[in-house]
Amino acid sequence: MTTKSLRAAARHFASLSLAVCCTLPAALPARAQDPATTPTQQQQQPATPPATQQPPPATSNIVSRPIAQRSIGLEANKVVRWTLRDAVTAALAKNVDIELERENVRLKQYDLIAAQGYYDPAVVSTLLYNRSSTPTSSRFTGATSNAISRDSVTFNGGLRKNFERYGTTFSADLNNTRLGSNTNNLEVQYAPALTFQITQPLFKNLRIDANRRLIKITRKSLDLSDAQFRQRVIEIISNTQQAYWDLALAIRNEGIARESVGLAETQLNNNKRQVEVGTLAPIDVVSAATQVESRRQQVFQAINQLS
Predict the structure, then answer these.
(1) Is pLDDT larger for residue 144 or for residue 94?
(2) How far apart are CA 92 and CA 248, in angstroms?
(3) What is the DSSP track for the chain?
(4) pLDDT digits (tens, 9 = 90+) for 225-259
(5) What are the pLDDT digits (tens) for 142-169?
């Protein structure tokens, strides 16, 4: 064997020895970390207990109850829809105070007409008929019989007019008498008379008198009654508008309260599902249920206010 062959064999042996030395320390810890399990040790290990069913949470019994519809003040088939104009018209037409104020205004108007009637023109007339028969006591009466008979017809007509401005009074009278007697040469006699009279006060009752004072007082009273009537109408219209919008607000408030109950119930259901999957604590379900009951109470309060 040559020297060259000996050197090659020595290099090969050294390489094998180095590989064995490197692998032996890495294998020893792995062996120590994974020791063989004996049958006795397998018997001593406790068995895994079977999975037990968890009791359902107490929050699963929380249920939401429906809210009844409002029935107070409503009758079947008698629900009508009113605009603000309809409400004001009905309030003015059916209000007792409005009728009283209207009648007061009418009475004051009648009083004013009655006071002004003093200055209306007035026509007066008189019609009289008289027949008499008197026995004669002398031969020289001129009667053609033993009795004197007389027939008289009186017709009087006149016009009266009082002026309000200065208290002037005007009158015109026509007096006429028809007389018939058996002692007259003429069978019928007439005695007509036409008179005119104007009266103008200079000092007393020139500016004011009792009738003109009554007319002025009645006019002021009429203006006052009309103002009171207008004031009452304005008050009723204002109260009707306020009540109309209060009712509209109450109706809208009830609707919003019912919607809030629906939202609270939705939140309650979401919390229940999250508790079932274990992502939320059961106390959150109780809190959501409390919120639902609070919203339900608000709905009942809104129903009472609306009714």
Answers:
(1) 94
(2) 20
(3) --HHHHHHHHHHHHHHHHHHHHHHHHHHHHHHHSPPPPHHHHHHSPPPPPPPPPPPPGGGG----PPPPP-TT--TT------HHHHHHHHHHH-HHHHHHHHHHHHHHHHHHHHHGGGS-EEEEEEEEEEEEEE---TTS--SSSEEEEEEEEEEEEEEEE-TTT--EEEEEEEEEEEEETTSSSSEEE--EEEEEEE--SSTTSS--HHHHHHHHHHHHHHHHHHHHHHHHHHHHHHHHHHHHHHHHHHHHHHHHHHHHHHHHHHHHHHHHHHHHTSS-HHHHHHHHHHHHHHHHHHHHHHHHH-
(4) 999 999 999 999 999 999 999 988 988 998 898 88
(5) 555 667 778 889 999 999 999 988 889 9
Amino acid occupying residue 147? A
- pLDDT, residue 131, reads 85
Strand-pair partners of 153 = 129, 178
Angle between helices 96-116 and 210-277 (to 10 degrees): 170
Instruction: Note the pLDDT tens digit of each residue in 198-226.
Output: 999 888 888 888 999 999 999 999 999 99
Cα 296 off chain centre by: 27
**What CA–CA distance (Å, rounded) separates 11 from 147?**
207
